[in-house]
């Protein structure tokens, strides 16, 4: 009865405990079960040969379970093939049952592969192969039907300035494509997969000020408006202007070590959003800005530049830009002036945020999740598998 329930077409002859504590079940053929051809599925009566195979099944409590299974090779009248018989619980050539594979597929969605390997006693590469096949079946097909708005960003793939690009459906929060590199050539396969008709349906693409992304979008999507992301602009202003002025002010106070240390240690106070500061940190920030005019000026510019992206219309955004640009130029601070002049080239994409309120902040969340996936896997050497894991982590909202 046990064999009929768990292993259709087979009966349990014996159960033996092995030296390592696992169980070995020896199975035999059920005479009442008619074998079927592994190729065409037809009933077969002619037997070509019989072999036995050692197969892993799902654990019973704390015991690993092995099966010693007789496998018949049949001579089929219907298709003329000599093929191994078809079993409902074991694929041809496999050495793990469907039940064990389904258990592993559930485990790898919540545990690192190394932990699943330790739990099941299977090799790391065996578990990775099972998971890779699951992901390929579910997420391996490119599907961008109905996509109108995109966000794209790059993330660090490995150390040594190796990057990959992720492209997401901004409306459904679904990762559409991931590829190695951050150049025009690297992202071109996405637009080729999207096709001419799909590209024409794209109305807006949010990105950072990456010239490669910009040029490739304009080349393939004639109806798309490029929207430059607030997060990246503010982050770049923090690095190129606020940080530069902070270092210059600290260097100017070499004769006053105590004041110099205060400014040197104020980097995160100046770069973080004011809303994210605690009461004590907010007081320190106010004291710092009150004591240093150049730092107060660039901090004000950093805060004011955000208002351009929240303008209710293009006209109002243009007015806010003119006010901010005038303040930056009149500040007399060289890094702020240089930044404002460079940013002016990207004005159209900045003002487009009033029409298409897109940003890549969702991709910043994707980047954080990517780091978690890499840590869980202790690093990925197989980029294709890694990219499938990213797509699985962001399947998108249901329509």
Descriptive account of the structure:
This protein has 399 residues and is an alpha/beta fold. The protein has three domains: 1-94, no CATH class; 149-228 and 361-393, Ribonuclease H-like superfamily/Ribonuclease H (Nucleotidyltransferase, domain 5), CATH 3.30.420; 230-355. The chain is built from 16 helices and ten strands. It has helices at 2-6, 98-107, 113-120, 124-139, 184-200, 211-220, 230-251, 257-264, 267-271, 279-291, 293-309, 314-330, 334-343, 347-351, 361-376, 383-393, and strands at 10-17, 23-29, 46-60, 63-75, 82-84, 149-158, 162-169, 174-180, 204-207, 225-228. Strands 1, 2, 3, 4 and 5 form a five-stranded mixed β-sheet that branches. The chain is elongated.
- The total tally of domains equals 3
The portion of residues assigned to helices is: 40-55%
* Straight-line distance between termini: 46 Å
Tally of helical segments: 16
- Strand residues, percent: 15-25%
Radius of gyration: 31 Å
Q: Detail the poorly predicted runs.
A: none
Average pLDDT confidence is 89
> What is the helix/strand order?
HEEEEEHHHEEEHEHEHHHHHHHHHH
How many β-strand stretches?
A: 10
Domain Transposase IS204/IS1001/IS1096/IS1165 helix-turn-helix: 85-134
Protein name: Transposase
Domain Transposase IS204/IS1001/IS1096/IS1165 DDE: 150-390
Organism: Paenacidovorax caeni
Key attributes of the depicted protein:
alpha/beta; Nucleotidyltransferase, domain 5; 5-stranded mixed sheet; 399 residues; Transpos_ISL3; 3 domains; Transposase_DDE
């Amino acid at each position: 009865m046990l064999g009929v329930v768990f292993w259709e077409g087979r009966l349990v002859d014996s159960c033996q405990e092995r030296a390592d504590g696992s169980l070995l079940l020896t199975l035999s053929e059920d005479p009442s079960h008619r074998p079927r051809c592994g190729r065409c599925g037809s009933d077969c009566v002619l037997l070509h040969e019989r072999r036995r195979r050692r197969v892993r099944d799902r654990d019973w409590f704390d015991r690993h379970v092995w099966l010693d299974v007789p496998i018949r090779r049949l001579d089929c009248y219907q298709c003329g093939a000599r093929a191994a018989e078809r079993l409902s619980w074991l694929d041809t050539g496999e050495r793990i049952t469907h039940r064990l594979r389904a258990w592993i597929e559930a485990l790898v969605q919540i545990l690192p592969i190394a932990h699943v390997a330790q739990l099941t006693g299977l090799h790391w590469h065996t578990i990775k192969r099972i998971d890779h096949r699951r992901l390929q079946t579910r997420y391996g097909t490119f599907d961008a039907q109905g996509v109108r708005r995109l966000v794209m960003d790059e993330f660090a793939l490995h150390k040594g300035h190796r990057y990959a690009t992720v492209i997401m459906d901004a409306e459904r929060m679904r990762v559409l494509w991931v590829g190695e590199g951050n150049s025009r050539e690297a992202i071109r396969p996405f637009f080729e997969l999207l096709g001419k008709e799909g590209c024409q349906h794209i109305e807006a693409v949010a990105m950072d000020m990456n010239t490669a992304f910009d040029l490739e979008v304009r080349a393939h999507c004639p109806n798309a408006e490029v929207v430059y992301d607030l997060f990246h602009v503010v982050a770049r202003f923090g690095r190129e202007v606020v940080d530069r002025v902070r270092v210059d002010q600290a260097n100017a106070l070499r004769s006053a070590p105590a004041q110099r240390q205060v400014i040197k240690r104020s980097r995160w106070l100046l770069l973080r959003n004011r809303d994210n500061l605690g009461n004590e940190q907010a007081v320190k920030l106010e004291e710092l800005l009150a004591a240093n005019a150049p730092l107060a000026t660039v901090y004000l510019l950093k805060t004011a530049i955000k208002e351009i992206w929240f303008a209710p219309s293009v006209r109002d955004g243009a007015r806010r830009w003119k006010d901010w640009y005038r303040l930056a130029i009149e500040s007399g601070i060289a890094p702020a002036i240089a930044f404002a002049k460079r940013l002016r080239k990207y004005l159209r994409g900045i003002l487009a945020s009033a029409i298409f309120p897109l940003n890549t902040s969702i991709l910043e969340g994707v980047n954080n999740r990517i780091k978690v996936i890499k840590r869980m896997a202790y690093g990925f050497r197989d980029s294709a598998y890694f990219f499938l894991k990213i797509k699985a982590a962001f399947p998108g909202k249901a329509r």
